[in-house]
Amino acid sequence: MLITISEIPDEGLTVETPAALAPAFGEGGWELKAVAIQVGRHGAEVEVSGGFEGTVSLVCSRCLEPFPFRVAPELAVRLLPKPSLRAEEVELSGDDLEVDFYDGDLLDLAALLRAETLLALPMKPLCREECRGFCPVCGGNRNQVPCACEVRPADPRLAVLQGFAAKRSP
Ligand SMILES: [Zn+2]
Ligand SMILES: [Zn+2]
């Protein structure tokens, strides 16, 4: 959904139906479920606020199975016209993370939501908190196939503690 910035009315725009944004947002297995966004303009400055909800297909870092991850970020983004190259160096030397830039007279709202979604993704995704991952002995996915392997090597954290205790005891 491209918004022509010069056509944003003084009272602002409200986007509350995902339909217009969903196709562009939904590339790569993403899905936009709900959106409640206000777009306001003060001169050349554009303000996007509100929130949205979507799901992103991630791969579990423990069992390597894909799973849908829910995101629901809050938005508070200030956008300024993209400055000329020389001015940009000056502008970006500040570290105001809330400020973004738009190019020309168009604001790509779906692209903005995708960028905000990327920021909301976990570094180590887990399909669920108690994901059991792979068995280190047989290599099976322990969520799907319960195996009877005996996991002999002690937890490395415990081994460290035991070594520590051994050193301390007389
Ligand atoms: Zn998992
Ligand atoms: Zn096993």
Descriptive tags:
170 residues, alpha+beta, 2 domains, 6-stranded mixed sheet, two-stranded antiparallel sheet, 4 helices, 8 strands, 22% helix, binds zinc ion
Q: What is the multimeric organization of the chains shown?
A: single chain
Total number of helices: 4
Query: How many strands appear in the DSSP assignment?
Result: 8
Radius of gyration: 24 Å
Q: What would you say this structure looks like, in words?
A:
With 170 residues, this protein is an alpha+beta fold. The chain folds into 2 domains: 2-120, no CATH class; 132-170, no CATH class. The protein has 4 helices and 8 strands, in the order E-E-H-E-E-E-E-H-E-E-H-H. The strands form 2 sheets. Strands 2, 3, 4, 5, 6 and 7 form a 6-stranded mixed β-sheet that branches. It has a two-stranded antiparallel ribbon with strand order 1-8. The longest helix has 13 residues, at 156-168. The radius of gyration is 24 Å and the shape is elongated. The relative contact order is 0.16. The model has no long low-confidence stretch (mean pLDDT 85). One zinc ion is lined by residues 135, 137-138, 140, 147, 149. The site of one zinc ion has 7 residues, from loops.
Topology:
Layout: E1 2-4, E2 13-15, H1 22-25, E3 31-42, E4 45-59, E5 66-71, E6 74-81, H2 85-92, E7 99-102, E8 106-108, H3 109-120, H4 156-168
Parallel strand pairs: 6-7
Antiparallel strand pairs: 1-8, 2-3, 3-4, 4-5, 4-6
One zinc ion (ZN) binds at residues 60, 62-63, 65, 126-127, 131.
